Amino acid sequence: MRGHGVPGPRNGPPGDLIAVLDIAEDSRFERHGDDLIYDLALSFTQAALGAEVEVPTPYGPTMLKVQSGTQTGAVYRLRGKGLPRVGEGGRGDLHVRVRVWTPVKLTAEQRALLEEFAKVEGSPPSEEHTGKKFWEQLRQAFGR
Questions:
Q1: At 48, which helix (H) or strand (E)?
Q2: In this structure, which CATH number among 2.60.260.20, 1.10.760.10, 3.30.70.670, 1.10.150.20 belongs to the domain 29-124+132-141?
Q3: How far apart are the C-alpha atoms of 6 and 20, rounded to whole Å?
Q4: In whole angstroms, how large is the CA radius of gyration of the chain?
Q5: pLDDT on residue 21
Q6: CA end-to-end span of the chain, whole Å?
Q7: Does residue 81 contact residue 62 with C-beta atoms inside 8 Å?
Q8: Would the CA dihedral through 110, 111, 112, 116 be positive or negative?
Q9: Contact at 8 Å (CB) between 17 and 5?
Q10: How many Å is the maximal CA-CA distance in the chain?
Q11: What are the sequence ranges of the domains in the chain?
């Protein structure tokens, strides 16, 4: 910024102010301009029953209400929780991408409960009934 630095020698005109910014990466987020993507791991029960979970944002944690029946690849949009828009007002969005977590090791009790559930679960829906694919959901979330 011309003329906004310290005064010159012997009361001379002020010099220029030069600011250098070092923007640190945050491994929790994937950046797309002023929008961010966060991968959220949910347990099967959280995805099936719905849950209220804490999600990190650049401004501190916030709560997200996950709808029952949420599938892997679903994207939730948190408006205004992304990065500030440079030269404009407002902020980008935070897109929360869901990944349903499957446990690697089950206890005997967990196995027994899941085997009981499997008896009444039914078949998974065919692809035409599962809704939009992941990339279509992401495009819709970004408004394209």
A1: helix 44-49
A2: 2.60.260.20
A3: 16
A4: 24
A5: 73
A6: 37
A7: yes
A8: positive
A9: yes
A10: 88
A11: 29-124+132-141
The per-residue pLDDT for range 34-88, each reduced to its tens digit, is 999 999 999 999 999 999 999 999 999 999 999 999 999 999 999 999 999 887 8
**Segment 95-141, tens digit of pLDDT:** 999 999 998 999 999 999 999 998 998 887 765 545 556 667 666 66
Nearest-CA neighbor of 54 among 111, 21, 19, 94?
94
Q: In this structure, are residues 54 and 39 in contact, taking their beta carbons and an 8 Å threshold?
A: no
Residue among 123, 95, 87, 118 nearest 37 (CA): 95
**How many Å apart are CA 67 and CA 23, to the nearest integer?**
35
**Beta bridge mates, 124:** none
Return d(Cα 35, Cα 37) in angstroms, integer.
7
pTM of the model: 0.70
Sheet order of strands, 94-101 included: 29-32, 35-43, 94-101, 75-78
Residue 73 tokens read as 């690849």
For residue 116, report the phi and psi dihedrals to the nearest 5 degrees.
-65, -45
